Structures are given as structure tokens and as C-alpha cells.
Amino acid sequence: MNTRMPALYIGHGAPPLLDDPLWSGQLATWAQDLPRPTAVLIVSAHWESAPVSLSASAAPLVYDFGGFAPRYYRMTYATPDATALAQRVAAMMPDGEPVHQHASRGLDHGAWVPLKIMYPDADIPVLQMSLPTQDPYKLLRLGERLRPLRDEGVLIIGSGFLTHGLPFLTEFRIEAKAPGWSTEFDAWAADALARGDVDELAAYRSKAPGMPYAHPTVEHYTPLFITLGAATAADTPGDQKVDGFWMGLSKRSLQVA
């Protein structure tokens, strides 16, 4: 019998996360404490596409970043075939809603960077699903539709960054001081997550301090709602496994049962 997996929302960082002993250590320890998944289904901020699209097994990684050391563009993460999971996910979508099986798209850095740390042996099938909307309630319903996968041993991950105001950062160092808009949004989200207040979290545009600086675009925040939808009950407070800041951005991450 498969173990019921939790669902996660993680900050995925940029490729230099791989060289950060603190954060990479936190992610590695977290993964070691989880039951071993039969597969991973991950929704990254870096693939916005509707209708729902699914990655191709054995496709090369997507190096969707610029300005980093050449070695990051040579990295690989060859995981086992995830075709069976792709077929299962497609079958879970509502009748009449198309699902696009992408023929050549591999994992982007919102998927492979954290997974290289969490599952470095690359011996677990990984399927990436696109982020088809930014509507929190539609994403909650999508996460709820995916929830049964957890009973099949599938680890569902929403991958983003709890704050992501890159245009408003004044320095790019891992240990850079977090600006006020980042700390304020982080504290607001931490409180709402601790209370399981999904409606508060969904009303971030009008209720969250630090907006719009914390999220001038919102694709790094909204994968959270896939995770909350996949929870046994979306309004149950989750376990905030990682906190603190990286380059001034909140790396707060969540595990829900």
C-alpha cells in the first residue's frame, strides 16, 4: 500500500541555490524526512500555459535563466519515464478540457534546481505541469482534482517564491538584507498560513502589505494555491518548514497534509 504523501509549496531559487549550504541543506533534510514518493508532480512559476500542459519525459532541461556561470547550463537531471503519471493526470481533468502533452519540453529551473537537491539520485519519475491560470480559486480546484494522486504516493509540489520583487532589489547577494516590502508580505503570509485563511491568501492583491513590490507579476506566488487545493482540507494550517530570506526574497515554504 502506498503512503499518502503531503503536498508542498517551495521557494525554488535560482541556480546558485545549488551552492548555498544553508538553504540546500534545509531542502535536503526536508526531503529525507518525507516518505519516498512513487513520482513527483511539480507546477513551476516558469511555465505559464493554458490549457494544462505536461512535460515530456527524457526531454532536455530548460535553462530559462541568464547571466550565471557556464556550468549551470551543462547540468542534467535525467529522471525515469513519467508517461504513466502524465496519462493519469490527463484523465483527471474535466471532460471537455483539453490537456496538451508537450513533445519536447523538459523541466525548467523551477523544477530541476530544487529537485536536484531534494532527490539528487534522479531516480524518481518527475512530471511538470503548466500553471494554466493565476486565479487562486481555479487553482484551488485544480489542486483538489489532483489530490487523489497523493494516495498513490505522488508528491505534489507548487514551486515559486513567496516574494519575488526582482525589479525592486538593490543588491544581489544571498545574504542581502530583505527590503520592507518583502518582510511585510512574508509576515502577512506566515500569519494567514498559520491560520489556514485561504480567502485572506487569495485576496493578496488588496490585503497583502508590500504589494505590488513583493509580486509585480504573481506567477511565483500562485502555485501556492495548487498546494492548498491538494491538501486534505485547504483551510487546515500547514507546517511552515523553511523561512528566512535569500537575496532579500522570502524562501518560506510549506507542507500540508
UniProtKB/TrEMBL annotation:
UniProt cofactor(s): Zn(2+)
Domain annotation Extradiol ring-cleavage dioxygenase class III enzyme subunit B: ranges: 26-233
Keyword annotations from UniProtKB, A to Z: Dioxygenase, Metal-binding, Oxidoreductase, Zinc
MF GO annotations: ferrous iron binding; oxidoreductase activity, acting on single donors with incorporation of molecular oxygen, incorporation of two atoms of oxygen; zinc ion binding
InterPro entries (UniProt xref): Extradiol_dOase_DODA (IPR014436), Xdiol_dOase_suB (IPR004183)
Membership in a protein family: Belongs to the DODA-type extradiol aromatic ring-opening dioxygenase family.
Protein name as catalogued: Dioxygenase
Source species of the chain: Nocardioides guangzhouensis
